[in-house]
Amino acid sequence: MDLFVFLAVLGAALCHAAWNAGLKMRVDPAVAVTILGIASGALALPLLAVTGFPGRDSWLHLAASIVIHVLYFMALAEGYRSGDLSMVYPIARGAAPLLTTFASLLVLAEPLPAWGLAGILLLTSGVLLLSLPRSTAQARLDGRAIGYALLTAFLIASYTIIDGRGARLAGSPHAYAVAFFAGNGLAMGLIGFVRQRAALSAALKSGWLIPFGGGVLSFVSYWVAIWAMTKAPIALVAALREASVLFAAALGVILLKEPLVAARIIAAVLVVAGLVLIRLG
């Protein structure tokens, strides 16, 4: 993978981990993801005047992605309501690249270099190891969170394949990304107005700053990913984004006071080894 693309996606992974950590702070996760979607949509709207609309061949992909993203945000919010960031996030992000890799090979018939495939497997192993429960009690209590995390992983893989192909058909990945965020912001805003009007109003008066800042980070993170999927194999970009679990684990320990155990140190080594192989691929 080209070094510039590699570093850009790693930077996007840091942004992604930061807004996920924000969802566990102060504001109810369901309200937070709604504000996040609205914020990123508000950022995207004026940029449409600069990028223009994507090509017509990508519109079906764009519509499907918006629907799947809405479902993804709902599943993610429920997962964070039920379990720790450092458990839910790694499961969701760890299973997703495996599903994306299978879909990329089987559906898109997109070839992967051997080093890249090995890197995906190593990185995913490390990510899943990060999600191991820290105690028997936690393992019993987090079944609901694990279910939502796995659903989130399936939705991540689905929108990744759709957006990767859609961006390639759009003529401009930037136009596709901006149009996506504008449409997603509108959808999240409408759903929030119908389902969470009172909670949204209260959050915007008090604890709105963190989720709104998360909207900015989400916007930057996924825009870079969409662009990168037009420059490199979709499966490699999808796996590389999961380096965000290292940043999420660090943020969980530093900001949320979640404990760091030996297994997660080993997992970090596996993730870094996977990153090296992906770079070689």
Characterization of the model:
By secondary structure, this protein is mostly helical. It has one domain. It is built from 13 helices and no strands.
Top keywords for this entry?
281 residues, mainly alpha, 13 helices, globular
In short:
With 281 residues, this protein is mostly helical. It has 13 helices and no strands.
What level of helicity do the residues show?
Answer: over 70%
* Tally of DSSP β-strands: 0
Q: Using only CA atoms, what is the Rg?
A: 18 Å
What gap, in angstroms, lies between the N and C termini?
A: 6 Å
Alpha-beta classification:
mainly alpha
Order of helices and strands: HHHHHHHHHHHHH
Question: Rough shape?
Answer: globular
Layout of strands and helices, then pairs:
Blueprint: H1 3-22, H2 29-51, H3 59-82, H4 85-106, H5 114-130, H6 136-141, H7 143-169, H8 173-195, H9 197-205, H10 209-228, H11 234-241, H12 244-254, H13 262-280
Helix pairs in contact: 1-10, 1-12, 2-3, 2-8, 2-9, 2-10, 3-7, 3-8, 4-5, 4-7, 4-11, 4-12, 5-11, 5-13, 8-10
